[in-house]
Design goal:
Blueprint: H1 6-14, H2 22-29, E1 34-38, E2 44-46, H3 47-64, E3 73-77, H4 82-94, E4 97-100, H5 107-117, E5 121-124, H6 129-135, E6 141-144, H7 151-155, E7 171-176, E8 186-190, H8 191-205, E9 212-215, H9 222-235, E10 238-241, H10 247-254, E11 263-266, H11 268-276, E12 290-293, H12 300-308, E13 313-319, E14 323-327, H13 332-337, E15 344-345, E16 350-354, E17 366-372, H14 384-390, E18 391-392, E19 395-404, E20 410-411, E21 420-422, E22 425-427, H15 429-437, E23 442-452, E24 456-465, H16 473-481, E25 492-495, H17 509-515, E26 529-531
Parallel strand pairs: 1-10, 3-4, 3-5, 5-6, 9-10, 9-11, 11-12, 12-13, 24-25
Antiparallel strand pairs: 1-2, 7-8, 13-14, 14-15, 16-17, 17-19, 18-19, 19-20, 21-22, 23-24, 25-26
């Protein structure tokens, strides 16, 4: 059967249509090809089997959901699984909105998110039943994934709902932001947004029918649910679903010749953990085309270390509101030439880098990144004022700082809100973090600006030391002095046990600033401190 394949085939199938269902095409042209493998259970489904499961769950949801909002919302609290992926796709097929919830949150943190999302149905893994009991109102309909009367058992008894024709602008996913700057917001993704975002990652990540992707990043984040899972299914590759990140198990999966994993996505801390694992064996990873990195700044030192082992760390930049936005190519020479760069804009996105008055800056200058394209969210759920502030003449304001060199390669120095000014000079914490993070005795680091009587603001570096190898504060400051201009060097070092991070690897600097607002009277901690003028 002569059928179009790849991105061109997908575009031909969906251009001008209103379904945007990523399974429709694949279930037609490659029904017997393996689509997904679930590591925890060993379950394996072909595209036709996955399509039937999605249709059955869609039928169940259509029968069970009693709308409190239009379109109705379905919340899901569970680890990565075939069931969760199928429920997400089923929601789109049935015209519902899928809300994946962060299973790392406690009941008190989940409760306001659930109340804001107002789900008509709440689906959960058995593991989270106790959290559910505290977080969900009594009147919300609840359904367990497993069990005699659970989601999968009940769906298995039904016929399948066909892919419905809904308008492209209909919301199908709502992702709650990780909340590095405050209260999480519900980011709306339409059918068109999700489709365009998957196309973007397919292009920059070179995802094809021959690709085998491993996903152990959580589905409650755009990287796991959209960039990896949705793209792989849409493009006809094989998706390996792991319920969570375990360094040794992940390395075993990446090195399994029967799986032949070609693409893996991680945040920088995960990549560093893999490299430090006692079972690290780069020779076993020859099938791996790249490890894709996002969510937090990537140090040039880590890039160089992986390249020495023949594995490119492919840096990129994206966010819940946009999906994949900027990306390095899978080119080892380009990665080596531009360490720390996030690459070039994705094909379905336009980019501007602007100053405080909204004017485009010259190459080499730093400004705020603005984006426009079909993958960009229409806004935030129930937050019209914040939605209005996020857009200027159709351009989405990311809140992140960018710099473009003369060759079009883009760097992201830091978030606009994280930059601080010391003695009249702009300082980008990410640059300092990259330097301190390269120290052999440093496991993790976050830098924030704090008030200072002399300089207005100064840098405070919170450092997590490698076990049993704690350096002195003076050692860190000397290390910085050899690599940074004087005004960029942190004025204070605090050694801490851990740095709070979101699921996507971003340091929760809003919490750090609240906790360490004063350099004169820092909280009592079991740390050593050092000061530098």
């Amino acid at each position: 059967m002569d059928q179009p394949v790849g991105v061109e085939g997908i575009a031909a199938q969906f251009c001008g249509l209103e379904t945007y269902d990523p399974l429709v095409y694949r279930a037609k042209v490659s029904p017997d090809a393996d689509a997904v493998v679930e590591v925890a259970s060993g379950e394996r489904l072909t595209f036709s089997e996955l399509d039937r499961l999605v249709g059955k769950i869609g039928a169940l949801l259509s029968n069970e959901v009693k709308a409190s909002v239009a379109p109705p919302h379905v919340a899901y609290l569970g680890r990565n699984s075939i069931a969760q992926l199928a429920t997400c796709l089923a929601c789109q097929r049935a015209g519902l909105v899928f809300i994946p919830l962060n299973w790392r949150l406690g009941a008190a943190e989940l409760r306001p998110i659930i109340e804001d999302g107002d789900p008509a149905l709440f689906i959960h893994d058995v593991e989270f039943a106790s959290v559910l009991a505290e977080a969900v109102r009594d009147e919300v309909q609840v359904l367990t994934v497993e069990g005699e009367n659970g989601l999968l058992a009940r769906a298995g008894k039904l016929g399948a709902v066909a892919a419905a024709s809904f308008e492209a602008a209909r919301t199908c996913i709502m992702l709650y932001t990780s909340g590095t700057t405050g209260k999480p917001k519900g980011v709306l993704l339409t059918r068109h947004n999700a489709f365009a975002s998957a196309v973007n990652f397919a292009m920059v990540g070179e995802i094809t029918e021959a690709s085998v992707t491993l996903c152990d990043l959580p589905f409650f984040h755009t990287i796991g649910l959209v960039a990896i899972a949705r793209t792989t299914v849409m493009m006809g590759g094989l998706l390996i679903i792991a319920d969570r990140f375990h360094p040794d198990r992940t390395l075993s999966l990446l090195g399994d010749p029967e799986l032949g994993v070609t693409h893996y996505f991680a945040v920088p801390q995960m990549a560093a953990t893999l490299r430090a694992s006692p079972v690290w064996n780069p020779r076993a990873l020859e099938a791996l085309q790249a490890i894709f990195i996002g969510g937090a700044p990537l140090s040039p030192a880590l890039i160089a270390e992986f390249l020495e082992h023949g594995i490119p760390l492919v840096n990129g930049y994206g966010m819940s509101e946009v999906g994949t936005a900027i990306h390095m190519p899978l080119d080892r020479e380009a990665i080596a030439r531009h360490p720390g760069s996030v690459g070039y804009p994705a094909p379905l996105l336009e980019i501007r880098i602007v100053n405080a008055t909204g004017e485009d800056v010259e190459d080499g200058e730093v400004g705020e990144i603005w984006l426009r394209g079909p993958s960009v969210t229409p806004g935030y759920w129930n937050k019209p004022e914040e939605t209005a502030l996020a857009f200027v003449d159709g351009w989405f304001r990311t809140g992140d700082l960018g710099r473009r060199d003369s060759g079009g390669v883009i760097f992201v120095p830091d978030r606009l809100k994280d930059m601080y000014i010391t003695g009249g000079e702009n300082v980008f914490p990410a640059e300092i973090e990259a330097v301190i993070g390269a120290h052999a005795k440093v496991q993790d680091v976050a830098v924030i600006g704090v008030p200072d009587a002399k300089w207005g603001e100064c840098g405070l570096a919170l450092v997590v030391a490698v076990a049993a190898e704690t350096p002195s504060a003076e050692e860190i400051l000397t290390f910085c002095a050899e690599r940074l201009a004087s005004y960029k060097r942190p004025h204070r070092i605090l050694f801490v046990e851990t740095i709070p991070r979101t699921a996507s690897g971003k340091a929760q600097k809003n919490l750090l600033r609240q906790t360490y607002a004063s350099t004169q009277n820092p909280p009592a901690l079991p740390v050593e401190t050092g000061m530098q003028e």
